[in-house]
Amino acid sequence: MKNQETVIAAIEALRVHPFTLIQLSDKEKFHTGMLCYALNKYPILFKTIFKLKEVGYIACVEEDSIDLLIKHKGEVVLIVESKFKTGLHKSKAPNDFGIPERKYISQLEKIKHNNNGLGANGYYLLSLFGEKDEGNLESQFGFIGIQFTDIILKSLQELEIEVRGLSEEDSLIILWIKYLEQLKIIVDYFVKSEMNSIDNPNIKKLLKSIKLNGVFESYRYGLVQQKVEEKLSHKIKESLKVSCENRNELEQVGELFNSHGNGGIHYALATEDAAKSFGIQWQGALKLFIETTKPSLKEGVREICKALNFKSTVKKDDVPKKPSSGKFSSLSIQNDWDIYGGINDKPEEIVKYLKSLNQNIIKKIVINQD
Question: pTM score, two decimals?
Fold first, then answer.
């Protein structure tokens, strides 16, 4: 309970923080820009954050389509990718990648390939939570992972700005430090909670008030995604990858998304018709869906529920709710799935749903959805 009270106090502090009030705090580019500003104002940060020993470095934002570049005497030294709110994914390999059998590559591989001519000596990935495969970032991709509320915050605190006389620039950095200090309390609480319940409903409500609920929801959906991928069969994984490729030219098993500021996760199975997919989507409630490229009037979703004995949402007097129509036809099959609740059992349940759906008889229903 004491931990929750501390977290609620931290969210309240962020709610009235100037960066929140001027609607900048939830912007990924804002935090990358603040880091750039701090680096150039306090060059010691090049050493404490990026382990650079010489002097004369300069940081640049959004140059050559790169989030943050660090240069020395005009030459690129480090390339920094920032993922304050979003995660990594695989994307289509460039035509000149040189390995024809690899159609999709990590986003980090693509960054290195596209910027190979810049001659950078090192690559860094900035994030809020740290990537789930952070141990492989350097060995596999050559990127070093750094968290905003860990090394960056610690390095800023070590400047001891408040001890000296303050300039206007110092005041701006102090505001950022105060923001990151409160954010760290929330991040640490979510990481420590793992997949256990975050019982206090005020936490969910307050995170929404500072427009960061989607960030923390996506983190928890990501934990579920990782467990689901470990449990799925190779056959179902391939179907999910094919579906994602057909729709987005990406290679993913589960697709994390954010709509209207709320996090979610999407599992779409492929059919023989590349224009049609089906599966489950979890965003608040768990939904069964069929997705087509053209609006459909058929009720294939209800047919699937009937075939598999899935219980769909009902209205009063046990009248079944009509599925949503259009290109994305869906029915809620679990209304009480709360990403802030205990989610340890959800990966296994998702796997069971996907196994049930991955049948030819179900795919025929989807194919006939016109």
Answer: 0.87
Could you tell me the two tokens for 154?
A: 């610690």
- Give the three-class secondary structure for 269: strand
Answer for the pair 148, 42: CB distance below 8 angstroms, yes or no. Answer: no
Task: Specify whether the backbone of 187 is left (phi greater than 0), alpha (psi in -120 to 50) or beta.
Answer: alpha
Between the alpha carbon of residue 177 and those of residues 103, 126, 148, 318, the distances in Å are 42, 16, 10, 54
**Residues 6+ away with beta carbon under 8 Å from 111:** 66, 79, 81, 123
- Spatial neighbors of 26 by CB under 8 A, at least 6 apart, are 20, 85, 210, 211, 212, 215
| Residue that has been written with the tokens 């349940």 in this structure | 349
Q: Tell which residue, 66, 64, 59, has the closest CA to residue 82.
A: 66
Distance CA 299, CA 289 (A): 10
Q: Distance between CA atoms of 258 and 231, rounded to whole angstroms?
A: 24
Rounded CA-CA distance 203/191 in Å is 15
Of 317, 353, 351, nearest in space to 332 by CA: 353
**Strand, helix or coil for residue 163:** helix
pLDDT tens profile 221-260: 999 999 999 999 999 999 999 998 888 777 788 888 888 8
| Long-range pairs of 25-29 with CB within 8 A, sequence gap ≥ 24 | 25/179, 25/210, 25/211, 25/212, 26/85, 26/210, 26/211, 26/212, 26/215, 28/82, 28/83, 28/84, 28/85, 28/86, 29/61, 29/62, 29/67, 29/82
Name 265's bridge partners: 256, 282
pLDDT tens digits, residue range 209-219?
A: 998 998 999 99
Token pair recorded at residue 124: 């860094």
- Distance, in Å, from the CA atom of 341 to the CA atom of 191, rounded to the nearest integer, reads 14
